[in-house]
């Protein structure tokens, strides 16, 4: 491996791998340096107990931008999926439920009690929102325009966005402007009469953030997620071998293009002279030279640690420091010696994504605890059983259960050293209400708080999106003012992580857009 490259990419997460593929395809000599032992970042698969494997971070694929398969020469048809178009089952404490399909034609598949009108309410809502989410999708693969001193391309992006809004009829335009800054609680309340339908929309809008359903911006968050899910031919899906197999596919495509990928290579310092990038230095002291460096690490780790405050303006340090990056979602992996009793007495339940959220108020109450650095005693969950779809993830006859737990603080007010075991036991007790007998079926448990996610995946605060998502951090304001177009104040230093436009959810779009920005730079 040479020590001289055109471009060095820090981090072999999905965005970094996408960026590497696009740049190498254009003839750049690229090196990707990954601190962990395998590629993928949050999108990896690993063994958490003997014979049991799990997608360690994200456990479902739904956000990958459709253009990326083509741009990276990764044929979607050649990626083996364990399951596609996975439905979502929403349940409450009384075992009432609705099950709905994913994608742009989302419909209620079956339910315990919905009327014909309530089924129609769901379809009408999805159809109305698709028009608005398409506007956000069209912005996802574009570099955010600068409002001041913009280029011709910036003005073109702004003009095209305005044209799309203008093409809406008056009623839709008024509706879009009315709801975009709203809270999802009010929108769900005026759209549905069924509590589970309201809960489903509210849960989706706040997942991965610290926001409760009554918080402003949650309609924007929902539209942002929905815009990507709409465009997935496979809908909610699981690659065979877990999410890590998808990352490996993009890594293999990069290797074919001549990209060098080095794992267990932690970048300690970005080398700078006269405000110009010169390369990087690893924690072991080894140096690599490059005239351009792209960081897939979060902006705080990049600017405040690898670059260092001494190399950037005081005002930039202040702005970067204030970006809210404390994660609020925990992950639990359970190794089970048997499959549990189906919730609706239908074994197909285990092929669905399961959401436990009795109603919108339940979710709002759960969110309140995060304000005081505590976890709620009435948690809401997202649950999958990946080994039902992919038997290679667990020993014969045994299963893996993967649980996302929203509204879990990065720092517990009493300290995680004192509370983590109690938290884990409490979550299992709550799961027992949903799946009676789970205690007896558990062979091993792994619990990752946001602080654990920070340590394992090198993400400041353990935040999946490298920082909160909202209108105040949208397009040219993401991750913060002055970093809008994947550029930094350091010449030759760029960003391509989830804290860049359009955000996380394994879209790959920040990596794609950053690569295009680098190719257009001098």
Any descriptors?
522 residues; alpha/beta; FAD/NAD(P)-binding domain; eight-stranded mixed β-sheet; seven-stranded mixed β-sheet; 19 strands; 36% helix; globular
Describe the protein in words.
The protein contains 17 helices and 19 strands. By secondary structure, it is α/β, with parallel strands linked by helices. The protein has a domain at 4-46 and 55-80 and 239-324 and 466-520: FAD/NAD(P)-binding domain (3-Layer(bba) Sandwich), CATH 3.50.50. Strand 6 and strand 7 form a beta hairpin.
Strand-helix topology:
Elements: E1 4-10, H1 14-25, E2 30-33, E3 45-49, E4 52-55, H2 67-71, E5 81-83, E6 88-91, E7 97-100, E8 108-111, H3 116-140, H4 152-167, H5 170-179, H6 184-191, H7 195-206, H8 218-229, E9 238-239, H9 243-256, E10 260-262, E11 267-273, E12 276-282, E13 287-295, H10 299-307, H11 314-321, E14 329-336, E15 353-356, H12 360-368, E16 381-384, H13 386-389, E17 399-406, H14 416-434, H15 438-441, E18 442-448, H16 450-457, E19 493-495, H17 509-520
Parallel strand pairs: 1-2, 1-13, 2-10, 6-15, 13-19
Antiparallel strand pairs: 3-4, 5-9, 6-7, 7-8, 11-12, 12-13, 14-17, 14-18, 15-16, 16-17
Helix pairs in contact: 1-9, 1-17, 3-8, 6-7, 7-8, 7-12
